[in-house]
Amino acid sequence: MSIKSLSDAATLYNGVKMPWLGLGVWRAQEGGEVENAVKTAIQVGYRSIDTAAMYGNEAGVGRAVRESGVPREELFITTKVWNTDQGYDSTLAAFEASLQRLGMDYVDLYLIHWPVAGKYKETWKALEKIYRDGRARAIGVSNFQIHHLEDLMADAEIKPMVNQVEFHPYLTQKELREYCSQHAIQVEAWRPLMKGEVANVPEIRELAAKYGKTPAQIVLRWNLQHGVVTIPKSVSESRIRENADVFDFELSQEDMAKLDGLNRNQRFGPDPDNFDF
């Protein structure tokens, strides 16, 4: 897959273009920290910012976008409905609250944050309404396994456009990615750098030396060559720049396979089949 610049984008099945690489802002503090991270990223050339109601920093993201000097329509903003707000009416209310905090009249992508049993179908109906009303250009889910997707799509009128999941060399999610591909659902990676653990994996360090790149850059490139949208999080200017410097090289098929071979089905985040929040 030829992805050559920060402005390159995946095309979702409804025709909306979503940048392949974006900035995640989980744990970025509301106020100066998140605002500086978002402004830096936009200045560097990022056009996609991923936040969530639960992160508590939507207002800062909105301020940074307004002050960035880049027209809103050139940016791709994602946010998510949190678990305690799931259900039809409560999701609609939560979406309005997110828009208010962001200071926007639409988002580019709205996601269900986790598959809360007994609630996500009603939540999805709310997302379908939001999409039909033109207030989200695309809708999707996060942390859904194959069985969650099958269950959701059994009653859905609109299928998810994106599934954002934990994805990295220790958790390659091959079956889930194949399933999503068959259903034209774009996979997006969170925690692609394994909480920084990529720097300690000998095979990744070897490839970093071979390509003259950092371990993080090797793994982000691996994400992109798998056709997975990725949103590494950082509040550091040097890291935000480093993470974007992945468009001037390509991993060989052999090296892609080497990274695939590191899979251990190991999660650094919660298990979507066993979470209690």
UniProtKB/TrEMBL annotation:
Family matches, as Gene3D superfamilies: NADP-dependent oxidoreductase domain (3.20.20.100)
Protein's name in the database: Putative oxidoreductase YtbE
GO molecular function: oxidoreductase activity, acting on the CH-OH group of donors, NAD or NADP as acceptor
Active site: 55
Keyword annotations from UniProtKB, A to Z: NADP, Oxidoreductase
Top-level taxon of origin: Bacteria
Gene (name only): ytbE
Species of the source: Polycladomyces abyssicola
Limits of the NADP-dependent oxidoreductase domain: 21-263
Entry's family note: Belongs to the aldo/keto reductase family.
